[in-house]
Design goal:
With 406 residues, this protein is an all-alpha fold. 64% of the residues lie in helices and 3% in strands. It has one domain. Strands 1-2 form a two-stranded antiparallel ribbon. A two-stranded antiparallel ribbon has the order 3-4. A hairpin with a 2-residue loop joins strand 1 and strand 2.
Length: 406
């Protein structure tokens, strides 16, 4: 193990302890003024007793690390999709559990990891919670190592470590230590991209398929895979740079994320779409809702009197702008990463009213590459670290109290 890898592992370990410890301290030090008015619907969900009817969010073990979507991941990982303890959504085709709005691989991993943890006397929900946090943290470490590997050729060892560190101090990075799928998804997606740069095509394709079963945006990894395959041919002379058998095999592997998506679609996709549209109000490329929601958000940000909402939308807008600008800045050296990053933002952005974007942009590797480039200047490095940690502390505290963040 190189000294840089050891440094990344130690940073990750201390960050993990710090985030979880901070959540414990903040929970015991003060109480917020409820409810949260960041969005029109949040007051009904953020009162003092709003979680009482959600058994997966009130188990005392590691309760600070669960809120919002954690309920559904824990439910699927503990019981399954058709869990009677989870609310039903009325659709034109009948009632379906809200669990169907969530992809299967993260809760499947919870089910696998929780099995030995039950031997320690934890409650079923407690075992699932600990398993979910472990998976998120391990995925985060994998994402850090992938960022380091992708950037050290350009930015050298220190720059690679810096890129990995900036992932951890991004304002919404606390999600990577909670029962949310972000940590696992970043580990799989960034791992796939890093392996592609090392010409490990088979392993990259397999990780891309698993990423697709973790979050729908994983299917976009078909583009980096396709670009890598196209690079195996000298298109000026139409001469392959690898044996024909290798070209054919990799051509098939390019479509691994698409195949994974189609398998999910056949098994769970219909229920997913019904729940997403009828409860969450989200469908792919719903430009009308996107435009209407964006107009409303801009009006509230510039002219609204609700300061909580203005701050929320300000953070969302800033995150999206920075993510897209970063993709433009790195596209010449990292075209596949840039294209993946743009689509990782635009697809969820246009699926309905703007929401949760500061969480979704975590999947944009171009942000950490850009920050690492700028971080070569000591003043920027210190200033961004202070800014990121302060905003990270605010958002982590809000999440810990079950307030809306993303």
């Amino acid at each position: 193990m190189s000294s840089s890898v050891r440094t990344i592992v130690l940073i990750w370990l201390l960050w993990s302890v710090t985030i979880i410890g901070f959540q414990t301290i903040v929970q015991n030090r003060f109480q917020p003024n409820r409810p949260d008015r960041a969005l029109e619907w949040t007051p009904n969900e953020t009162a003092r007793n709003s979680q009482n009817d959600k058994p997966y969010l009130v188990d005392p073990f590691m309760n600070n690390q669960v809120s919002w979507d954690s309920e559904f991941y824990l439910s699927i990982g503990t019981v399954g999709y058709d869990d009677p303890n989870v609310r039903l959504v009325t659709t034109p085709e009948g009632e379906f559990s809200m669990n169907y709005a969530f992809f299967p691989f993260y809760p499947l991993m919870i089910r696998v990891v929780r099995a030995p943890l039950t031997l320690f006397g934890l409650s079923p929900i407690g075992a699932s919670t600990l398993a979910g946090v472990i998976i998120s943290l391990v995925g985060t470490l994998a994402a850090m190592l992938a960022l380091y590997d992708m950037t050290r050729d350009e930015l050298e060892e220190r720059g690679g470590v810096r890129a990995a560190f900036y992932l951890l101090v991004f304002p919404s990075s606390f999600f990577l230590a909670q029962v949310f799928a972000e940590g696992l998804f970043l580990g799989l997606a960034f791992g796939s991209l890093a392996l592609l740069r090392r010409d490990r095509f088979l392993h990259a394709a397999l990780l891309a398929g698993l990423a697709t079963w973790t979050r729908t945006i994983g299917a976009v990894l078909v583009i980096p895979l396709a670009l890598s395959w196209l690079g195996l041919v000298d298109w000026r002379s139409f001469k392959p740079r690898r044996p024909v058998q290798t070209l054919l095999l990799r051509a098939a592997l390019v479509f691994t994320p698409v195949v994974a998506y189609l398998i999910w679609q056949a098994a769970l996709g219909h229920q997913f779409q019904l729940v997403e549209e009828n409860w969450f109000g989200r469908t792919a490329f719903d430009f009308k809702r996107f435009l209407d929601g964006t107009q409303y958000a801009l009006e509230q940000f510039f002219n609204g009197s609700n300061m909580q909402m203005r701050v929320y939308f300000g953070i969302e807008f800033a995150a999206v702008i920075f993510a897209l600008v970063s993709c433009v800045l790195v596209v010449r050296r990292y075209p596949a990463l840039a294209i993946f990053g743009v689509l990782a933002v635009l697809i969820p952005l246009t699926s309905g009213a703007p929401q949760s974007l500061v969480r979704y942009v975590l999947a944009v590797p171009a942000m950490y590459i850009t920050l690492s480039r700028w971080g070569q200047h000591e003043v920027f490095d210190r200033a961004w670290t202070v800014f990121g940690v302060l905003l990270l502390s605010l958002l982590t505290a809000l999440f810990t109290f079950d307030m809306w963040v993303a």
